[in-house]
């Protein structure tokens, strides 16, 4: 882990294999009406500034990780309920804390990066027959 120095939108650099990832650490805010739900506010970040968010849940002393491309432009919600406490439908629809590991976020980021690179390559290739 490396700490940044300067005006950057990320807090840490994680070294995973041959990849350096920009990680923004954020406190997850608890929903007052549904104390098992937490939210990260992400509207101040733009593509290319952060690779992964690390959400810290103070009340549970737990961290979850989510790739930038997965959070959307405004916020990301996480559910701390145990999968066994939910109906199958709700469990399949919820972003469960237990599922959001660093390895999962890393795989998601790499998948998103590869897809973007393929799109750039295919859009810059000359069209056959012209």
Helix/strand layout:
Layout: E1 2-3, E2 12-16, E3 19-27, E4 29-30, E5 37-41, E6 52-57, E7 62-67, H1 68-71, E8 75-79, H2 88-93, H3 102-124
Features:
single chain, 130 residues, alpha+beta, Trna Endonuclease, Chain: A, domain 1, five-stranded mixed beta sheet, three-stranded antiparallel beta sheet, 3 helices, 8 strands
What does this structure look like?
The chain has 130 residues and is an alpha+beta fold. It has one domain (2-119): Trna Endonuclease, Chain: A, domain 1, CATH 3.40.1350. Helix content is 25%, strand content 31%. The protein is built from three helices and eight strands. The protein starts with a strand and ends in a 6-residue tail after the last helix.
Condensed summary:
The protein has one domain (2-119): Trna Endonuclease, Chain: A, domain 1, CATH 3.40.1350.10. The chain is built from 3 helices and 8 strands.
């Amino acid at each position: 882990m490396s700490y940044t120095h300067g005006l950057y939108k990320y807090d840490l650099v994680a070294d995973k294999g041959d990849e350096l990832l920009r990680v923004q650490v954020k406190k997850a805010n608890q929903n007052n009406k549904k104390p098992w739900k937490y939210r990260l506010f992400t509207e101040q970040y733009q593509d290319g500034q952060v690779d992964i968010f690390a959400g810290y849940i103070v009340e549970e002393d737990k961290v979850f990780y989510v790739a930038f491309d997965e959070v959307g432009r405004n916020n990301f919600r996480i559910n701390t309920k145990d999968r066994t406490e939910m109906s199958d439908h709700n469990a399949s629809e919820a972003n469960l804390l237990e599922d959001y590991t660093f390895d999962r976020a890393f795989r998601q980021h790499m998948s998103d990066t590869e897809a973007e690179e393929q799109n750039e390559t295919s859009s810059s290739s000359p069209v056959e027959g012209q």
